[in-house]
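Example (one chain per record):
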Amino acid sequence: MANGAEMPAREPRQGVYDAVVVGGGLVGSALAYGLRRELARVAVLDEGDVAYRASRGNFGLVWVQSKGMGLPRYGVWTLTSASLWPALAAELLDKTGIDVRLEQRGGLHVLLSDEEREARLRFMTELLAQPGMSSYEWKLLDRHEVADLVPGVGPEVRGATWTAVDGIANPLKLLRALHTAFARDGVDYLPRRPAQEIRHADGVFEIATPRGLVRANKLVLAAGLGNRALAERVGLAVPVRPQKGQIIALERTRRILQTPLSTLRQMDEGSWLIGDSQEEAGYADGTVGLPILGTLADRAVRTLPALRDVRVVRTWAALRVMSQDGFPIYEQSAACPGAFVATCHSGVTLAAAHALKLAPMIAAGALADDMAPFSTRRFHVQEA
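Predicted structure:
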């Protein structure tokens, strides 16, 4: 689990699973949860907490604003997931008793200069002019309108873009709820079993792990950065790379921020998170750097000066899973039918779509036609 406490493990069942998911983070867990709604025998192979878990560094936004520039289908997919989130949160609460603290009151992207304001206006106008991207409301707010939503904003705040569809959830509680649902629904969670080799014969996948073979009719690779090597074993080339992000956690205060910002949020229990750094730093995920942290903190206190008096509790870094162009990859292998790959960097935002839309497609054996833009074929330029 992202907080260091793994859920109780089962021993693998004899015979062949209907589906095995490789990866027990947010992407794999949401898919396994959705697959169990369709199939009787589902297992999750998880490397354990030695893995490069994006889940442990997640900011917890359910965010549509800004998504889809250059691939409008991604914006539509993100909006679909945001609309499904209330159903997923309610179902998890009913099934596990865990409230994942979903709040969808809208979200803000704050602008601290006239230059930022003009650039953001151009970006949002171009983004939503793309095909299929005019389906959600957004506004360019002035300083006074921002102050109505965020009391105490700093004098440098020039405005913000706002959308009604954005929100937040608690990523640790989400991951806990999904794994708790595994125990209730009979999903076999198998930690400390990284997939080492994959064989495909007579329609059955054999996945070799340090603790023996696991067999399945369908295989879903949701191992984050591990997908690059694993996908090769089923005939797919998945160009993913690590992108480092750093987060500052501040002490708990009275809850005052009801509308999240793209770089600043207050958790349901009162603690504050500051984030949104993006570094191409390879696999150096455990190191934090004062220059980056200083930049994050500076923007936060310029936005909300009262944060100067709130103490830092801790900082951490984690690795996002980024494709070559930054968009998700969803594809079934042509060489090994029944093997699917799912890779993205928005594990919280897309959790509802993964559980309630993508998982049923995988269970049925084929991705819908409108998922084609997410295939790796987009990386292959045709020769003239």
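Caption: The longest strand covers residues 312-323.
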